[in-house]
């Protein structure tokens, strides 16, 4: 018996050596990222106003703590090769200090290639220098986007390329969450954690559109064994509030991302958000599903035509369940408790409505609108 325990410990250590620092992202990272709304037009002023909003509208207290600058902040390198911000950003240290001053953390973006996806300066050949610069500026998070690395490295070297930046970040001496963005190539979920990734994109880019969001979200089934504290599958950032989906569709988006234990990076303009958008992003019971300390990623447990049921086991032994209607009209959806391993009766709570639904035996049925979702907790 003792021998078995020892072997298990050694195997556990080997599996973990060189893996992501799980204290850095013990639960899926939450915050905001500039790309989905501002894309390349983003300025330092936009980032400051995102920080102002997040710190004052309840988002920070709901767990949204990262304010992440995506592509298009980069300027030219100085004579020593040091990366500088472009004119829209100017003094990066001042910007980082400002966001930190709001009790928030700050993220930055680069590519292992010579150019970023939008054609700005990448980190190719300057990895050590850039990692040190990000740490000196005070950044807490790096999204590292494959982009033009495709032209300078064979894909077979991808894991080494990511490890190189991870090791440079470690040497830079500041804890920095490391976000791999390479669209799921090479089944990154199998090796992302071993090169120091705290999260890795599993897909190409999301757009603010129900079809695209649902193709990405509902396609994540099967990846659940690869997620856990410190290392998460990332089905891309949120589009909630950007205007291309209706209320029910955004509820589907948010419910699904919570069940997937996905990073929750809002991608809208936080300074001009409707109360409805804010209430979707900050619903505490829904966010708690995403942030549950067990760190399990949900999976599909039933499917019939346009109906899908997904479940995520939670730390207290209860189960979060999403009833999704991908169809074009309202449909009744029946959850069979046996599909989530519940024998006999279960106590149900509607998480969007903050409402106890009562006890049910064997199953529960509810009408779900077109493209809509119901998120419940079964005890
Ligand atoms: C890629 C990424 C996006 C965004 C853009 C920036 O498309 O997948 O999330 O970072 O690059 O150019």
Write the layout of secondary structure elements.
Elements: H1 2-16, E1 30-33, H2 35-38, H3 44-56, H4 59-62, E2 66-68, E3 74-77, E4 83-85, H5 92-100, E5 105-110, H6 127-137, E6 141-145, H7 149-152, H8 158-172, E7 177-181, E8 199-201, H9 210-218, E9 232-234, H10 247-259, E10 264-266, H11 275-281, H12 284-290, E11 299-304, E12 307-313, E13 319-325, E14 331-336, E15 345-350, E16 355-361, E17 363-368, E18 373-378
Parallel strand pairs: 1-2, 1-10, 2-5, 5-6, 6-7, 7-8, 8-9
Antiparallel strand pairs: 3-4, 11-12, 12-13, 13-18, 14-17, 15-16, 15-18
Helix pairs in contact: 3-5, 6-8, 9-10, 10-12
Bound molecules: alpha-D-galactopyranose.
Q: How would you classify the helix and strand content by structural class? A: alpha/beta
In CATH, the topology of the largest domain is named: TIM Barrel
- Straight-line N-to-C gap: 35 Å
The helical percent reads 25-40%
Provide the succession of SSEs.
HEHHHEEEHEHEHHEEHEHEHHEEEEEEEE
**Number of helices, where a helix is a run of at least 4 consecutive DSSP H or I residues:** 12
Low-confidence stretches: 1-20
Name the beta content range: 15-25%
The backbone outline, from C-alpha atoms, is globular
Largest sheet: 8 strands, parallel
